[in-house]
Structures are given as C-alpha cells and as structure tokens.
Automatic annotation (TrEMBL):
The keyword Acetylation does not apply. The lineage of its organism: Bacteria, Bacillati, Bacillota, Bacilli, Bacillales. It holds the Pfam family MFS_1. PANTHER family: MONOCARBOXYLATE MFS PERMEASE (PTHR11360:SF290), MONOCARBOXYLATE TRANSPORTER (PTHR11360). One of its GO terms (molecular function) is transmembrane transporter activity. Signal peptide: none annotated. InterPro entries: MFS, MFS_dom, MFS_trans_sf, Proton-linked_MCT. Residues 12-416 form the Major facilitator superfamily (MFS) profile domain. It is a multi-pass membrane protein. Keywords: Membrane, Transmembrane, Transmembrane helix, Transport. It is found in: Cell membrane. GO terms for cellular component: plasma membrane. This is MFS transporter.
Amino acid sequence: MSTNKKKIHYAWWLLLGLSIMVGLAKGGIMTAGGLFLTPVTQDLGIGMGSLTLYFSISSIVTMIFLPFAGKIIAKYDIRTVLVTAVILQAGSFAMFGLMNSVWGWYLFCIPMSIGSIFVTQIAGPVLINNWFKKHNGLAIGIMVASGGIFGAILQPMAGNLIASEGWRMTYFILGGIVIAIVVPIVLLTIRMSPKQKGLQPLGLEVEINNTEDASSVKVESNTNTGISAAIAKKSGAFYSLLLFFFFITAISSFGQHVAPFAMGLGYDVKFAGGAMGFWQVGVLIGALAFGILSDKIGAKNTAIFAMLLGLVPIAILLTVPDNSTMFSLAIGIYGFVVASLGTLGPLLTTAIFGNKEYGQIYASAVIGLAVAGIVALPGYGYVFQLTGSYTYVLYAIAFMLVINVVLIIMAFIGKKKLVQAGHWK
C-alpha cells in the first residue's frame, strides 16, 4: 500500500493529456480563427459579415449535433472518437487554406464543428467528472488554462506567420501541428473511466482506502446525488443556466473579433497577434484562478465576481482604445474573464444540479452556447461592416455581463426550490 500511495494518480496523467488536446485545439484553431478574418476578407474581397457567417453555421451544426455527442462518447471507445474528432477539426481548418470562395468556409466549418464538439466541449468535463471526485474545480481550471498557455504561444506565432508566409500557409501549419501532436497524446493518455486502469476516481480512492467496506459504499453513492435530467430541464434554474451559457458565450465570442477590432483602429496584424497573446495569458490565469476560487468560495460567488470584473476591460476599450498599452491590458483582462466559460460552466452545472445526471444536463445546457454562436459571431461582424466600429458591440457586451449576474442569482434560487420540493436525491 505504501508504494501505491507514493505514485501519482493516473487522473493527473489523463488531465495532462486532456490539457494538451484542449489547449492545442482551442489555442491553435478555435481562437486563432479571428486572426485570419481581415487578411482573408481583404485578399478575397469578402465582406466581414459574410465571412463570419461561417461561425454561425458552426454554431447551428453544434446545436444540432450536441444531443448525439454525449451518447456517442458513452457508446464508443473514447480514443477512437477523439482521434476521429481531431482529424475532422484540424483537417478541416487546414483545408481553409485552399479556399478561394466564402462557400469553402461554409462547407468545411461543418466537419470542423462536429470534431470540435468532442475535443473542446464535451470530452473534458465528462472525463474530469469521471476521474476527479476531489480537486474537480482545480482540474477543470487547469484544463481551461491550457488553452491560454498554448494560445499565448500560438496566437503571436500565427500573427507572425500570416505576415510572413500568408494566411493560406498558416492554416496548413496550424492544422498540421494539432493533428501531429494531439493524435498520439490521445492514444497514450485518454481513458474513459478509472475502472479501465483498475483504479478508483481521485479522492474516492482515499476514502475507500481509509474506511470500512460499508462506509465506502456510502461514499460512492454520495458522489452520484443530484437532480434528474427530466426534472432539471423543466426548471427555472435550468433555463437561467442555459441563458447564462448563451450570454457568456456571446461575450466570449468577441475574441474572434479582437484582431479586426485592433486592425480597424490602425494596428497591424503582428500587434493583433500579440494582443491575442495577452488574451490567452488572461485565459491561463483566469482559468486557474476561477478553479481555485470556486473550490474555496463556491461557483456562484466566483461567477458573479467574474461578470462584474468584465466591465473593466469594456470601459477601457470604450474610452482609450488608441493607447496600445491599455488596449493590450484590456484584452488580457477580457481573456481572464472569459476563462469563466470553460471553468465555471461545468462547475455551475454541478453546483446547481449535482452529479446524478450531469452529462445529460450539461450537454443540454450548452445548447445556449451554440445558439449564441449563431447570433453573436456574425452579428458582431455585420455591426462592424455597417458602422465601421465595434462601439455598439461593446455596449451590448456590458449589458450582457450585468444580465448574467442576475441569471446566476436566479439559477441558485431555482436550485433551492428544487431541493425544497424533494427533487435532490
């Protein structure tokens, strides 16, 4: 037993693999997409709103496919699913480099979105929920922070590559890097359940090793308490959470427009790539901070703090956007705030509805994420196309941050009603 206690629990190795996968897929593909908007629109003569419409198509595909994603992960080998998903996502992203018409983005964003659902949205929270009964918030924070770590390296790199090698070659390079690194990592480290390694989840193992058999049964059952998906989906708490996902995703979606926003103010693509590097550093720090904070003061208080802090970068971007130092600082704080989407989304779901049918509830609630992408991403592009400015977009984001504070409070009031009605079992 003493030798076993000294070993690093496999959950941490799984988290390392997940972090590399999510970090590269988000930092190298998802958030890098915004850097290509201005060069592509200028080179091919496409309107910003027309090109960003592919984000909307991606969100529609995500919304349609999300209900099936949880079932696919549960039914098929997780490694086969994720390898296929990575190839779909990164391969389709690379194919953008061959396109000469906006229809190419509309077409290839479909397989890219299907792959992305598994790689960046569903697999991480589900696997962490399976493997971590202790340090759950920290684990999710580390996974989300990985997007910041890789993004802080890849965003400036992508900006420099676009400037030196062109946007086509940069699509190929980023897509190729993600496939070459992530596929072996998935095969080596990812496992669906601790049972596949003959282990207990981290935290539960400690309890079992230090209690009698009868007590251990109780510990295991306590980790699966909560509200059923059928009851949850009819509750006000669920709709408050769904709307929270909608607005926080709309707020986060501005990341794809940071580069055009910067270039519209007269900054060049290299500066825009550097600013996105600040965004990713903010995501890195925010993800870790929110994971630790939620373990200490709870997901509710942490989420409210994050939303109120989001008003700070909006104020800076509205008042002194021409100051390059303040612009970069604001983008860094903005990245810190939007880290709450990846970190606090899963943690709020668990805090409100428990673990009983977490996967089903979370997969349903994040439909709000997909709907936001349909509306916000092209919407911001069309506002810029029509007005030549992102000022109205920034005012709308400030409004959404305030609305989200209200929604968080309403969600926990709804939880209290469900518990009082005896639905928490």
